[in-house]
Amino acid sequence: MSSSASVDCITQSGSGLKERNYLGLSDCSSVDSSAVSNVSEENKNNLNLKATELRLGLPGSRSPERDSDFTLLSSGKLDEKQLFPLLPSKDGICSLMQKSVISGNKRGFSDTVDGFSEIKSSVFTEGKWMFNATGSDSGTPQSVVEAKLAGSAGINMILSNNSSGAQPSMKKEVPTRALQEGHNKINGSNNNNSAPAAKAQVVGWPPIRSFRKNTLATTLKTNDEVDGKTVPGALFVKVSMDGAPYLRKVDLRTYSTYQELSSALEKMFMCFTIRQCGSQEAPGREMLGENKFKDLVHGSDYVLTFEDKDGDWMLVGDVPWEMFIESCKRLKIMKGSDAIGLAPRATEKPKNQN
Amino acid sequence: MVNYFPEEVLEHVFSFLTSHRDRNAVSLVCKSWYNVERFSRGKVFIGNCYAISPERLISRFPRVRSLTLKGKPHFADFNLVLHDWGGYVYPWIEAMAKGCTNLEELRLKRMLVSDASLELIAKSFPNFKSLVLVSCEGFTTDGLAAIASNCRFLRELDLQENEVEDPRGQWLSCFPDSCTSLASLNFACLKGEVNLAALERLVARCRNLKSLRLNHAVPPDVLQKILARAPQLVDLGAGSFVHDPESETYNKLKNVMQKCTSIRSLSGFLDVNARCLPAIYPICINLSSLNLSYAPGIYSKELVKLIRKCKKLQCLWILDTIGDKGLSVVASACKELQELRVFKSDPNDVGNAAVTEEGLVAISAGCPNLNSLLYFCRQMTNTALITVAKNCPNFIRFRLCTLDPITPDAVTMQPLDNGFGAIVQSCKGLKRLSVSGLLTDQVFLYIGMYAEQLEMLSIAFAGNSDKGMVYVLNGCKKLKKLEIRDSPFGNMALLADTGKYETMRSLWMSSCKVTFGACKSLAEKMPRLNVEIINEGDEMEGGSDDRQNVEKMYLYRTLVGPRKDAPDSVWTL
């Protein structure tokens, strides 16, 4: 959670918004921002993101520059290339192709025919992942060539991108951040915890049959409304923690024991507790967080309480799990000192630094 | 030499040909084969009801017994097509009622079916045996009542995902006591009440009943009674599965379930209390098909517990509540899995899909026989797709839907071109592909190069230029249906190879960059295509500008010219 929040900070600062350090996680954010900028460095050479940025506007409102002079992606993305070479990248072939390319950037498909048949045999024989032209092509040479014209034209273009000088029309690449910004403007769902406000609702997307949409929506509604024995739906309750700037929600139905719930809450609220513990401990942050939190929860610093149907605040853990989820309306992680008045907890672990 | 065979011999030989493609091929050999074939053809498949007229169908195939018709374009499922665009079945039934009364089977998809049509079927075809309606609308349970009352030899009534009005709810009691022939009854999509006593009696007297799918109005105690009467069921759709696990009913249900050892396919659970699922555990080991995609009440833990027991599962439809971890369990338990569909659990919540590329990779690693996929996910990566392509080279249908239609590779932020490229390169038998995520023209280059068997391609928010579409049109020789939305393909692509469209069933383009003028010139050039422009509002009022972009265009090949039943908002150019 902390890393995505820091990515939030970064993208927001990129688009001109003020970066706010809500969680006081100055350490994390510097680590993550360097990671992000590394990625954007890598990608600079490979993407023409302006052209790929989609705007969900009215028809005809798309800017005209999108489809002219578009630079196809080079096939030089190293990791994927090693895993799965889709197009030839051997130097020999490059130079062969270069010959036919340089003579005309804008040739039509028919012009590439001759070049293609030369290239075909050398290009498509390497490795099991390469297109096996000889095996699968049957029928007249002409039809084969026709079928592959698209391929050859594309190859010409791709390889001409590889040769740096040959494409005067190559567009200036825009770094990843811009894509993310544009992306977030359109549709902020890249970030897991983003607010829905930034999203553009698109008609017919995701493509789910209306019947299914309507049926599931009705079923969900019915489940939420029904009380008593027949409650199968999700049971979301708010979880607040003293000192945390925002609340969380958990679905009690996804847990079946108190242990599970408390581990899940630990994970959720760990970042808050790290801050408050201070940083005296040497070992890894995760270990610090977990142990600390457990100590905090089981110790006298924090207790988990819930508000029941009658509005009373109770200590979590006294009643059987099933009964607990039936009556729990919200959860609160309270400071131990505020929890006086609820049943006192025996602390086995010795108190830590705090 | 072949002409010396008497026709009876040819006919006998042809009787072994069931696929309509084989029969189509055979009929092209020579005139005598054409004639023998056409008189012996019993089943006809018409992928676009406007490609041919019912009269011509009947004159060519006078002895047709089974007719399959499809109406609206696929994107109609997602509210992209007007309700009254077309696809009326009535003219077909009318024509068949006059010229071909030995019709026995009718299968319709995305068509408008009125009660009058159903009543006409019920009256006109004495041997009528099977009615299958998928994603149709326009009828009510009154029409069903007519079918139930009059079709004396009805074997199959299968209603899948239809929108049906239910004014009276008594259609089930219209099956006469003499009706004992039902083998398959599916009314899961009906929203209303049914006469439960009539249902029980019907099940009791139809000893051949193999497939029964109930709607939510059938409570568990009735389910228990039904199962007790019909332990021979092979396919069960439970309606309501909500009851107190402590109750007597539940106990009875558990006992009865154990005896249903023939059940191979399970679905429904439209209302469910997850704590009652253990009643199903005894039959899990026999299941080859499980559809829990309408059961949002089963959360991940319970889902996993259940699926883990289904060791022989071949087909699984579930909601994304299963999560990536749950999919790992599926991968380790269901080694024979061939088809997987993971749907969004809350279709109106655009924010949170609960599965990612990890779940898909896990499945591909555990289930090498996977050949059909529909996957709604939050994110995807090229690496994952490449891995999936390596693990599962047998895909016939691969449909990926990312929540955000233009999301890039979640790790590298690159387009997903290479990932899908790997899929088409590896899966040589791929017939159907839906792509999503950030995609450039590159992916279409790959598709054109490698997807030789591709018949249907769905594109949304992808590509950069006309070249993308041209790669596909040039490369995919077997392409039958191409549907594109919100992509920057324009006139150059549309007009690049106009002859291609006669080899295809249809092309849909919406929110692209195709202009009115280009559509007109295409229509002029190709008289055997219907080029339809669908107008939603008042875009095209009074003198349309040729340079204006067309919002929705649907073109399809046809032998019968422009249709006469189009509403005002649909122009055939």
Automatic annotation (TrEMBL), chain A:
InterPro entries: AUX/IAA_dom, AUX_IAA, PB1-like. It comes from the Eukaryota. Residues 234-338 form the PB1 domain. The keyword Nucleus applies. Gene3D superfamilies: Phosphatidylinositol 3-kinase Catalytic Subunit, Chain A, domain 1 (3.10.20.90). Keywords: Auxin signaling pathway, Nucleus, Repressor, Transcription, Transcription regulation. PROSITE patterns: PB1. It is found in: Nucleus. GO terms for biological process: auxin-activated signaling pathway; regulation of DNA-templated transcription. GO terms for cellular component: nucleus. Homodimers and heterodimers. Belongs to the Aux/IAA family. Aux/IAA proteins are short-lived transcriptional factors that function as repressors of early auxin response genes at low auxin concentrations. This is Auxin-responsive protein.
From TrEMBL, chain B:
Pathway: Protein modification; protein ubiquitination. Gene3D superfamilies: 1.20.1280.50, Ribonuclease Inhibitor (3.80.10.10). This is AUXIN SIGNALING F-BOX 2-like. It is found in: Nucleus. The keyword Nucleus applies. Residues 5-46 form the F-box domain. Keywords: Auxin signaling pathway, Developmental protein, Nucleus, Ubl conjugation pathway. One of its GO terms (molecular function) is auxin binding. Its main location: nucleus. One of its GO terms (cellular component) is nucleus. SUPFAM superfamilies: RNI-like (SSF52047). The lineage of its organism: Eukaryota, Viridiplantae, Streptophyta, Embryophyta, Tracheophyta. It comes from Olea europaea subsp. europaea. One of its GO terms (biological process) is SCF-dependent proteasomal ubiquitin-dependent protein catabolic process. The keyword Nucleus applies.
